[in-house]
Write a structure and sequence with these properties.
CATH topology of the largest domain: Ribosomal Protein L15, Chain: K, domain 2
Order of helices and strands: HHEEHHEEHE
Largest sheet: 3 strands, parallel
Radius of gyration: 34 Å
CATH class of the largest domain: Alpha Beta
Strand content: 5-15%
Oligomer: single chain
CATH architecture of the largest domain: Ribosomal Protein L15, Chain: K, domain 2
Number of strands: 5
Shape: elongated
Length: 153
């Protein structure tokens, strides 16, 4: 047997701490002498007896604290409305029927018409519209009936 023909050993053995002077990790086992860290476990969030960070931060009070939970309506651009025939009414039910929005999402969040793209068909839109969308709908000889109660069916 020669040293250069031995197979390589890839994993090292686990270091056995506190196994006497000969191990190189005897007595204090690499923890130093005395003190909190030498004696027991200290949680990561412990700050030496000071008031913890989480208790130093202010409470989230006031009007805007629940913005994360507010539901915004689904935005549909004016260019998507070119699928409808002339003089038809655009509402949540017709958008669902044509497959422009999913039923569950439309009923949960509502729908709003936004002004990106061009409209070439005269339509009666019975949904909330942005100002830009309203101008484009009226430019195409349609009308925009901004009825907030029609956001959900």
């Amino acid at each position: 047997m020669k040293l250069n023909t031995l197979s390589k050993i890839s994993d090292k053995k686990k270091r056995r701490i506190g196994m006497g002077h000969g191990s190189g990790r005897g007595k204090t086992a690499g923890r130093g002498t005395k003190g909190q860290n030498a004696r027991g476990k200290v949680p990561l969030y412990f700050e030496g007896g000071a008031v913890p960070l989480i208790k130093r931060l202010p409470f989230r009070r006031g009007k805007g604290r629940n913005k994360v939970f507010k539901k915004k309506p689904i935005g549909i651009n004016v260019k998507a409305l070119n699928l409808f025939p002339k003089n038809s009414t655009v509402d949540v039910a017709s958008l669902i029927k044509r497959g422009i929005v999913y039923k569950e999402d439309a009923l949960l969040y509502g729908v709003k018409i936004l002004g990106d793209g061009e409209l070439s068909v005269a339509l009666k839109v019975a949904l909330p519209c942005s100002k830009g969308a309203q101008k484009k709908i009226e430019k195409a000889h349609g009308e925009c009936v901004n009825d907030p109660s029609n956001t959900k069916t």
